[in-house]
What we know:
The protein is α+β, with helices and mostly antiparallel strands. Helix content is 19%, strand content 43%. It has two helices and 17 strands. Strands 2, 3, 4, 5, 7 and 8 form a six-stranded antiparallel beta sheet that branches. A five-stranded antiparallel beta sheet has the order 6-9-10-12-13, with no helix packed on it. A four-stranded antiparallel beta sheet has the order 14-15-16-17, with no helix packed on it. Mean pLDDT is 76; it is low at 37-47, 59-63 and 96-111.
Amino acid sequence: MKLDKIKAYNQILLAIFGSLIGIFVLVGGVFLLTELYHQIFPNRDIGEEGIVVNTSEPGDSMVSIKVQETTFLDPIQLDSGGPLFILPVSQVNLDVPENVIKYEREALLNPVRSNKFTYRNYYGYYNNFCLYDDNTKKFKIIFDFKVSLIQWSYLKINKEQLLLFKGSSTDSNNDDVLNHEDFQSLYIFHLSDSTLSKIELPQSTVVNFEPLPETNIISIRVGIDKNDNNKFDELREPYILYQYDIKSKKTSKFIPDDIGSRLQKIIEK
């Protein structure tokens, strides 16, 4: 009888200890996942509400209402071969809006890894980027217009270096906020000549982009808004692949029309 009681007591102790160990493992797992999330998306909590589109004071075109303020993130070295850095710029919402007198825009001031291919991706909420060259001590602002950016990449193929940005400068859903819910474009900045190109197609949104190693091509996956409701349904609406040629700076369909037609006829048989 005593032996049965001891066994029952031991079973209760084992159950308690097992439950405690399970709780510790669960808490530890949640903590590790949270830390991993913040390492992968270090700036997700900054600027996540997007950029306010209309900031004008009603009835006064020379006064704007300052509801957001720029905030700077840590510099990132683009290429270990030189002191060229990029400074991401985001925004924070002000608790108390401020009135600001409008002025004309100022002129602009005059980065997978191998020996031939480097590609790095970053995610967050940004509204601009500055380049800083420590050799010349000069800064360069990349965008001179309002834009909401949610992804940027540094690409180096052979000696060609580019910055790729995914974002929106058009309030496509008309909610007076620029953010990830608007149709996205791809902006490509060539470091060699400081030119900025915009890849944008009517009634479509850039979903993803991917440079192809050992080529001069960037593959661009675009979602098509077929029903013209200013939204892209990833389950009900089609994707089209485009390609950007780094050398010629031209964009074209990745899959030729005749191949696309033949593939469509196959599923219609």
